[in-house]
Amino acid sequence: MSLLTRTPLGALPLRSGATRFAVWAPAAESVAVRLDRDHPLEPGGDGFWTGEAPAVPGDDYRFVLDGDDAWADPCSRRQPEGVLGPSQVLDTSTFELDPGPGLALDELVLYELHVGTFSPDGTFDGVIPRLAGLRELGVTAIELMPVATFPGGRGWGYDGLYVSAPHEAYGGPEGLARLVDAAHREGLGVVLDVVYNHVGPGNEALTAFGPWFTDRLGETPWGDALDYAEAGVREWAIQNAELWVRDYRIDGLRLDAVHAVYDEPPVHVLAELADRVRAANPAALVISEMGPPDFRPLAHWGHDAMWLDNLHHALHVALTGEQDGYYEDFDGSMASIAAELRRPEGARIVVCAQNHDQVGNRALGDRVPDAKRRVAAAVVLFSPFTPLLFQGEEYGERAPFRFFTDHIDAVIADATREGRRREFRRFAGFGGEVPDPQALESFECSKLTPREPEPLYRQLLRLRRELPRELEVETDEAARTLTLRRGSATLRADFARETVELRT
Q: What is the pTM (predicted TM-score) of this model?
């Protein structure tokens, strides 16, 4: 790999008052950065272009390809006017951030939240007042759903286009920095959900620069697969990961749906990413979301942990009897739950009773009734795995968490509506009208109404810090009970009566 390949992409302010610009544009015969006028960049190896121009933080810019179209920077660190506006020079070295508390897997308790629905304001600053309560509950790190700039003002974040630019509707780069600093001061870590398997609508803003996508190795369910054989695409993802853990002092990354990140030998892009994240911040965790029980992230890529939804699915089917969609391979037996609990990876598996997918990807975004939730949560929190709570779960939030979008392209908006309708036509248990994801009401009704956490959550989170990792599991299929033992503590979960008994 050439030295130029490792050149920081995007706009890097210099002490001289100028800014160094770098972009990957192998398809272009000339590239300039447009400020007060067009300033030519110089070609280098592997399709990279670099150069300095008189610009300071706060200046807007675009890249001009072949003297014609002007585009935002694929590695923009700020998009003040959203995906259709110019990029803006940002100096992340001015952030004053407390160091993180350090995250040990054996002590990790994650709390997943969506910035837009977590508070009335729907901003990074709106999260801060509740940090102390989460720490007192027993949470050790908040996990933010993706915050990269995506089309429109509201959405889950998985349709990010400018992945290095924190969403302006949430408070932009400074807002994210304030939240990270406040969490660290409260003794909490911050894990950020990042997406490297696809990008959102508007990818012509990337393909104008070069061959970003390929169908050579497979397709993703959400869009064209990124081509990590291309040096610029590879650096786009890896430098994004480095940015979060270095400049924002993020304590860990959760890599979305890594089963849909395709790459070829000798070194998978996500293995290289893990190595370079640790070089940038040795304490940072790399956690993958894997759909099937495929343990490549742990066995071959050097990741610290991985999401695995199998325990959730086994619990959900046992409690609800639903077997549509995600759940069709699970039989609802006590034995299936016991098999998941006996997985040997321990804290390297992240498990949950709820997460954004398992709530939000239901037709109405509804959560299971309280008694069922408590049974599932008790098993999750008593397990030797790393637990994750989803926003509001700890007090029994009744507001739904719906799938909502704000696509600015009418064609994409209509396709999204129809896609949701089509998805749930095949669900035997659902015959109603699917809420319009584009409707403001789908977003507004998903906002939380916080209350005090239930004692069961406090008790189990306090207890898990004291228990040995070894877990004994007994099942009674006829009575539909599960008995778990860790040290001197016993948890009896009754799936027939939907009750939990904890003895210490």
A: 0.96
